[in-house]
Amino acid sequence: MFDNLSQRLQEIIRNTSGKATLTEENMSDALREIRRALLGADVSLNVVKSFISSIKDKAEGEKVVESTNPSQTLIKIVNDELTSLLGEKQAPLKLDTNPSVIMMLGLQGSGKTTSAAKIALKLKKEGKSPLLVALDVYRPAAILQLKTLADDNKIDFFTIENEKNVLKIAKESLNYAREHNNTVLIFDTAGRLQIDTDMMAELMLICNSIHINEKLLVVDSMIGQAAVEVAMNFNEQLEIDGIILTKLDGDTKGGCALSIVSSVHKPIKLVAVGEHIEPLEDFHPDRMANRILGMGDIVTLVEKAQKNIDVKEARALEEKMLKSEFSFEDFLKIQKQIKALGSFGGILSMLPLGISKDDTDKISHEGEKQFKKIEVFIQSMTPAERKNPNLLNASRKKRIALGSGMDINELNQFISQFEMMKKMMKGLGGLKNSFKKGKNKMPFGAPPKFPF
């Protein structure tokens, strides 16, 4: 998401930073390019006008042209305005009753049922006991889909077979939740191809009869500006509490996210990436603004590492590396840990590399390709060879290269780099032990911790 907008804004920033001085003329050029970038990303015209006007007013108020570092001052203003446009602060779910109720709203095909399962998985990982409730009585496939997702992820599920009264199902689910100690109910309501009177009447009946903690509108970010109209209609009739954006890794310009928050004045609370059932991610406006402007998002990367990396295994791998006992099998474990953080492209987008999107894409593509090659090489080895790299003589290498369908020169290059890494890590291990014993003092503080 935001790839095109991010690329354009980063180019504008690089061009502005390259100026010896920032004049009224080239600042005006930069603002014009920012305007074009936002319109090109499918941000609504009214939002763009307000955004540019706000940047211009602040730039003049802070006398950007006369400041000691004008380009950096302008970048800060743009970053602050992007953060404000995306909602200013992260908006957590308000689940302050027991049980709490989340109502999933949205048009058919927006990803509502899948998002219901994803939010249940997120809550389960946070220590809550979610209950998925099927209220789409018009599409049997929707009930079956939700039940399948619940079963696959070991999440409690509730429906009443052949019952068409959605309010009755909703009320009975509350009784079921109390009996089975479920702390959060997630109502997967029916969607339509378009908003209609019957749909809204049914949803309003539930809202008027049951206390709903969170009314979350699920919006498909692929539909662009149409998402704004959908959000405005739902908000006008049901007073939504927040938005879930789906399909953020698709071919989307991202403008709808900027337009929705500004148009309905409701926060984006959660985002969904990918088709696989993984927990929804909290939406942080400041972090997203940083990523759009190419400033990285180290905080989110660290949080992902804390959630997905096995610390005990990581420390064991670190010790092996420092003692030069590291094997090809251990290398596969590291690759698995890295994959848990997401794709190469996703990881790179969180690092403040200061390079263009094209260069990031090239690095990402090459990294994925090399990781795949290494994985194939190692999987072509016997278990004994994976555990003991010293076993690899000429005949074994030839067999591995043949088995992996790759050139033996590439295999030799990988083995050579692997051995060089082991020697380097062994040297660092000796240095680390030396500091531990107090024989030397680190000139720049404590010895580094390895991220593996």
Question: Can you walk me through this structure?
Answer:
The protein is α/β, with parallel strands linked by helices. It folds into 3 domains: 83 residues, SRP54, nucleotide-binding domain (Four Helix Bundle (Hemerythrin (Met), subunit A)), CATH 1.20.120.140; 194 residues, P-loop containing nucleotide triphosphate hydrolases (Rossmann fold); 130 residues, Orthogonal Bundle (434 Repressor (Amino-terminal Domain)). It is built from 19 helices and 8 strands. An 8-stranded mixed beta sheet has the order 3-2-4-1-5-6-7-8, sandwiched between helices. Strand 5, helix 9 and strand 6 form a beta-alpha-beta unit. The longest helix has 29 residues. It is flat and about 75 Å long. It starts with a helix and ends in a 16-residue tail after the last helix. The C terminus is likely disordered.
List the helices and strands and how they pair.
Layout: H1 3-17, H2 24-40, H3 45-61, H4 70-85, E1 100-105, H5 112-125, E2 130-135, H6 140-152, E3 156-158, H7 166-179, E4 184-189, H8 197-209, E5 214-220, H9 226-238, E6 242-246, H10 255-264, E7 268-271, E8 281-282, H11 285-292, H12 298-308, H13 311-322, H14 328-339, H15 344-349, H16 357-379, H17 383-387, H18 394-404, H19 408-436
Parallel strand pairs: 1-4, 1-5, 2-3, 2-4, 5-6, 6-7
Antiparallel strand pairs: 7-8
Helix pairs in contact: 1-2, 2-3, 3-4, 4-11, 5-6, 9-10, 16-18
Q: Give the beta-strand count.
A: 8
Oligomer: single chain
Overall SS class: alpha/beta
Total domain modules: 3
In spatial order, strands of the major sheet run 3-2-4-1-5-6-7-8
State the CATH architecture of the largest domain: 3-Layer(aba) Sandwich
Beta-sheet strand percentage? 5-15%
